[in-house]
Write a structure and sequence with these properties.
This protein has 225 residues and is of the alpha+beta class. It has helices spanning 2-36, 47-50, 219-222, and strands spanning 103-111, 116-123, 129-131, 137-139, 148-150, 157-159, 164-170, 180-182, 184-188, 196-201, 205-207, 211-213.
Length: 225
C-alpha cells in the first residue's frame, strides 16, 4: 500500500509547483507593465510640430525683419493734419484769412495836428493767418461811411501766432475845418464781418475825411502815409 501512494504524492507536488510558477509569471508581468508605463508617455509636440506660433517674443531688430513694439504699417507715413483754406490765388501757401475777432487791437494817437493814429493788430490764434491788402474797414460809431484807403495796395501780410501788424489811420487832414470828436473806432478786417470796437488811446480825435492804410510789418511804415 505504501508503494501505491507514492506516485500520487509525486503528481500532487508537481501540480502545486506548476501552479506556483504560473502565479509568479503573472505577477512579474504586471510589475513589468507598471515599470514601463511612464516611459511610454510621449512628449508634448513643440510649436514647430503643430504649426502654432511660439509664445517666446522675437529678438530680431527692425533691420532684421522683426517688428517694433507699438508700430503699425501706417506709422511711417502718418496722417497729415487738415489744412485751413488759403487765399483765392493760392500764392500764400494755404494760409487762412485772419478773422476780425481772432485779433486784438489797439489804436494810439501818434500826431495831434493831423490826428494821425497807429492801429496795432495781434494774432490771438494758434495758426498763421492772412491780412488781405485793401480790405481793412475803419468806421466811427454814430458816423456814416468808412475811411478811404491810402498807400500801397499790392501786398498781403501773413501774421504768425502772437505776431503783429500795423496800419496808419488819419482821422482828418490838416487843411480841413470842423469834424466830429470821437474816442472810439470800429475795426473790421473785411466789410462782411462785424467790427470790433476799440478805444482811441490819447484821444479823443477830430474826425473829418478819414484815411487808412493796409497793414504793414512795422509801425514806421504804417505811419509814413
Amino acid at each position: 500500500m505504501a508503494h501505491a501512494l507514492r506516485p500520487r504524492r509525486t503528481a500532487a507536488a508537481l501540480a502545486a509547483l506548476s501552479l506556483g510558477t504560473l502565479l509568479l509569471t503573472a505577477c512579474g508581468g504586471g510589475d513589468a507593465d507598471e515599470g514601463t508605463g511612464p516611459a511610454a508617455t510621449s512628449a508634448a509636440p513643440s510649436p514647430a510640430d503643430t504649426g502654432k506660433p511660439s509664445a517666446t517674443p522675437s529678438t530680431a531688430g527692425p533691420g532684421d525683419g522683426g517688428s517694433t513694439a507699438g508700430s503699425s504699417p501706417d506709422d511711417s507715413e502718418g496722417t497729415p493734419p487738415p489744412s485751413k483754406a488759403g487765399s483765392d490765388d493760392d500764392q500764400d501757401g494755404g494760409v487762412g484769412m485772419c478773422e476780425t475777432h481772432d485779433m486784438a487791437y489797439t489804436v494810439t494817437v501818434a500826431s495831434k495836428p493831423t490826428h494821425h493814429a497807429l492801429l496795432t493788430a495781434v494774432n490771438k490764434g494758434g495758426a498763421p493767418c492772412l491780412l488781405a491788402v485793401n480790405e481793412l474797414v475803419i468806421t466811427i460809431p454814430g458816423l456814416d461811411g468808412a475811411a478811404e484807403h491810402a498807400g500801397p495796395t499790392d501786398t498781403d501780410r501773413i501774421v504768425e501766432p502772437g505776431g503783429r501788424a500795423y496800419a496808419g489811420i488819419q482821422f482828418s487832414r490838416g487843411d480841413d475845418a470842423g469834424g466830429k470828436s470821437a474816442d472810439k473806432v470800429e475795426v473790421a478786417l473785411t466789410a462782411a464781418e462785424t467790427p470790433a470796437t476799440v478805444p482811441v488811446g490819447d484821444g479823443p480825435v477830430t474826425v473829418n475825411d478819414m484815411l487808412v492804410t493796409s497793414f504793414f510789418t512795422t509801425a514806421e511804415d504804417a505811419l509814413s502815409y
